[in-house]
Amino acid sequence: MSESNTHTTTSTDEFIKGLWRENPVFVQVLGMCPVLAVSNTAENALAMGLATAFVLLMSNILVSILRSFIPKEVRIASYILIIATFVTITDYTIQAISVDLHKSLGAFISLIVVNCLILSRAEAFASKNNLGKSIMDALGMGVGFLFALFCLGAVREILGNGTFFGLQLFPDGFQAWIVMILPAGGFFTLAAWLLIFNLVQQRKEAS
Amino acid sequence: MSEPASIPMTSNTKMLSAMVGIGIFCGLLIVLTYEGTLPRVERLRAEALERAIFKVLPGINETKTFSFSDGQFIQTDQSEGTVIYAGYDEAGDFKGIAIEASGQGYADIIKILYGYDPINQIVIGFYVLESKETPGLGDKIEKDENFLANFTALDVTLDDTKSNLINSVIPVKSGTKENAWEVDGITGATISSRAIAEIIDKSAKQWLPIINQNIAQFNE
Fold first, then answer.
1. Which residue from A minimizes the CA distance to B133?
2. What is the CA radius of gyration of chain A?
3. B9–A40: do the CB atoms touch at under 8 Å?
4. Is B20 domain-assigned?
5. Strand B182-184 and strand B170-172: pairing?
6. Do A107 and B130 touch (CB under 8 A)?
7. For the residues of B16-76, what is the DSSP string, one character each?
8. Domain coverage including residue B165
9. In total, how many domains does chain B have?
10. Among B19, B37, B135, whose Cβ lies nearest the Cβ of A95?
11. To the nearest whole angstrom, how far is the Cα of A125 from the nearest Cα of chain B?
């Protein structure tokens, strides 16, 4: 991870880097379990992205505030405790928003606890930076994660189900690619996006 | 992680107080959120249950909740504990009973609701209330049309003594269903679909005899 503090970075930089240059999915390849598992429809991807971004933001805030209070030896345990708390809060909140949404995400909400993206931001960033920067970092990474998840979810739902946010896109004759909804489709789509992402990146560097 | 030797170890008390402090704070946050969201969650759950009862008992207009104690069914307003839901049509005639049941699925406990028609002695509807089955595979038990078709007329006829099913509800391999008491499985969701058949079988063996022995109590 390139959190070198050799030159001073502004809060905006911290936000922007998560969107593209250090995108958690396309560049850092973090948090692959939810990325592959919950990106089978655009709606699920969006909800999971938002839930993860919320947990990331809240845990970054708390870790940053408590950074001088938490002893080094127990820091990982403390971070997990904090992350797990916000995951539980998210779980209750989603239940209070919609039973159906909770039904479709239920199995994966609790897995946000072990999303290495959140722990890595707590460890690599929030525990070393002030509150303002930590918030911007979490927002950038959260939106970057949401964006990546949505990219995968949209493609998989359109090809695998012929719909987008539940709306029928193709005429009745369309044969959906069932494989895109299955786990294998997650890998295919991720590989395709990584290819596109790296091509764009290379072009940019070459020019 | 190896710390450089020059950094002194934090004292145990400090570590302990940090962990306990964070623990108490986190616990407080969780309790507050739980208490805060509980009324709405309960309301949403009750609404979802109500919708599910109407789904598994097609054609009904009204439901009443019954609890079973001391050998008879008593109408109750509570939805806590072991209760079943009786459905009545527009004319007020007793049409069927929705029963909640649960059992071990592939990932976690699956909670379902099924509709029982005591006149024809069949299961007429099925709905998954809670499941954490794998999205795309195990969760087909909620969506797969062929699978759901199992529960439009699943045979659960009782024997003459009204104390046991003539045929147990048994899961069979996808596409091999021959008898009305068999549940056609789902390819790629074998464990989840078998679990549903077993849950219904167990629950039917427990509830149907007492329902049939006390059937008159629902018509009162």
1. A107
2. 18
3. no
4. no
5. parallel
6. no
7. HHHHHHHHHHHHHHHHHHHHHHHHHHHHHHHHHHHHHHHHHSTT--EEEEEEEETTEEEEE
8. 37-218
9. 1
10. B37
11. 17
3-state secondary structure of A8: coil
Domain hosting residue A129, numbered range? 2-152
**Edge-to-edge strand ranges of the sheet holding B83-88:** B72-76, B62-69, B83-88, B94-104, B109-117, B122-130, B154-155
Note the pLDDT tens digit of each residue in A24-79.
Answer: 888 888 888 888 888 888 888 888 899 999 999 999 999 999 999 899 889 999 99
Residue B82 lies in a domain: yes
Q: Does any domain span residue B74?
A: yes
- Kindly state whether A44 is in contact with chain B, defined as any CB-CB distance less than 8 angstroms: yes
Counting other chains too, the contacts that B38-41 makes at CB distance below 8 Å and 24 or more residues apart are B40/A96, B41/A92, B41/A95, B41/A96
Tally of domains within chain A: 1
Select from B21, B37, B135 the Cβ nearest to the Cβ of A40: B135
- Planar angle of CA A184, A190, A194, nearest 5 degrees: 145
Nearest of A28, A48, A30 to residue A116 by alpha carbon: A30
- Tell me the H-state helices in B134-174: 140-143, 145-148
In a domain, A128, yes or no: yes
Q: Which two tokens stand for residue B30?
A: 């969780």
Which residue among B3, B15, B30 places its CB closest to the CB of A88? B30
User: Are B79 and B72 contacting, i.e. CB atoms less than 8 angstroms apart?
Assistant: no
Contact A95 B41 (CB under 8 A): yes
State pLDDT tens for residues B173-200: 888 888 888 999 888 788 899 999 999 9
Q: Are B33 and A89 in contact (CB < 8 Å)? A: yes
Cβ pair A76, A123 in contact under 8 A = yes
Rounded to two decimals, what is the model's pTM?
0.76
> Do A96 and B41 count as a contact with CB atoms less than 8 A apart?
yes
**B61 touches B90 (CB < 8 A):** yes
